[in-house]
Amino acid sequence: MNILITAGGTSEKIDNVRSITNHSTGRLGKAIAETFLAQGHQVTYLTTPQAVHPAMESNLTLIEIETTKELESALLTQFKQQTFDGIIHSMAVSDFTTETTLSEDIFIEKLADKLATESDLSDLTNLTEALYRSLDEIGQTIQQAKKIPSGTDRLLLFLKKNPKIIAMLREQQPQAVLVGFKLLVGVSTEELIRVGRSILAKNDCDFILANDLEDIHGDQHKGILLDAKGQTETAQTKNEIAQLIVNKVEEKWRNQ
């Protein structure tokens, strides 16, 4: 099988020396990749410089990205070049990316300047609409500084929503066995399964690995694998999850 795996966590740049990221280590993705490789499959592995990587071997192609935009571009390039039998999208993708950054003084100056051109701000509806327009315009301010000065007491960071990478996978590779991941924090098993099923249906996945951050401690990693038929299977470690996913993807691929 020809397998694509995403792993690790994307970072979104604030300036040339600062970024926003998440705590994903890529250890689960690494375990999944190593299990597929051990079974003789070809693996294309998209990950980040900070994440752990599987050891290089002849059946492994490793591609590093940092931002969600870079991930999207790398995926589209791969989809043009080859067809995948399975896609394991375990990467923790940033929901938001940076739009611009302003000091408190500059933000207030720009907002006051925008509102000064508005009329009848005594009406709450007009004021609300004017604020929305002003924030939208300010958010589009081009970030000039390569390193934002640290002299301001407050730094206002504008974030805009990233595209959902998982939403495009089925469209781009309709033949692939698709495995998505959903991480929640401190919820009941019932809620974890409910949300996982919702994500599975919304993105037309074959499987979703639903897990709770509070159930992840080193190699101990409880995960619930849901399939499109409503069945669930539970694993207790990263290696068990990896083997479960590989077995299910292989089985689904053979039966297509």
UniProtKB/TrEMBL annotation:
Q: Does the keyword Ligase apply?
A: yes
Q: What Gene3D superfamilies has UniProt attached to this entry? A: CoaB-like (3.40.50.10300)
Q: Quote any Pfam family the record assigns.
A: DFP
> Which InterPro entries does the UniProt entry name for this protein?
CoaB-like_sf (IPR035929), CoaB_strep (IPR011848), DNA/pantothenate-metab_flavo_C (IPR007085)
Task: Tell me which UniProt keywords the record has, alphabetically.
Answer: Ligase
Pinpoint the DNA/pantothenate metabolism flavoprotein C-terminal domain residues. Answer: 2-104, 144-250
Q: Which GO terms describe its biological process?
A: coenzyme A biosynthetic process
In Gene Ontology terms, what is one molecular function of this protein? Answer: ligase activity
SUPFAM superfamilies recorded: CoaB-like (SSF102645)
- The coiled-coil segments of this chain are none
| The protein's name | Phosphopantothenate--cysteine ligase
- What lineage does the source organism belong to? Bacteria, Bacillati, Bacillota, Bacilli, Lactobacillales
